[in-house]
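Feature request, filed as a ticket because there's no other form

It would be nice if the structure record came with a short human-readable summary line next to the tokens. Right now we just get the raw output. Example of a typical job, pasted below so the devs can see what we mean:
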Amino acid sequence: MQATLKLSKAERTMLKLLQADASLSMENLAQQVNLSKSACWRRLQNLIDQGVITQKVTLLNQKMLNLDLTVYISVRTKQYSEQWAEKFKTLVRDIPELLEVHRMTGDRDYLLKAVVTDMSGYDLLFKQLSKADLIDISSSFVMETMKQTTQLPLTYIADN
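Raw output as currently delivered:
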């Protein structure tokens, strides 16, 4: 069982600020959490070492990259062997249009999130997925995005 993570108010604030803008300078971050640069750096390094911060990324505008269509794809398979699962992992890992792949409970085995240029792009993706020997591929296309964030809520962390 994993130990409960406990964070100080300064560490929570650091995480909140960095989730909104990972490009903040150490000086700016330290000022906003009322710590010295060295104390802020040590706390940040500790959060990285603990695995709380897993990576720093730059988010891109998918529309400007000609990826206008977001699609959620649910799939069912009749294959449950480790060998098939490894082949499926390799297949989906090598398709750059797939942003997320989740093994699910319920009547669907996997849920995938993809971005493609248009229906032709989706058709190419569909053909790639068909190589996985799936029983069913069911897709839903996003018509409007009302909320999209990468920021996790920090209210469930114990106080330090």
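Something like this underneath would help us a lot:
The radius of gyration is 20 Å.
Residues 6-58 form a domain with the Arc Repressor Mutant, subunit A fold (CATH 1.10.10.10).
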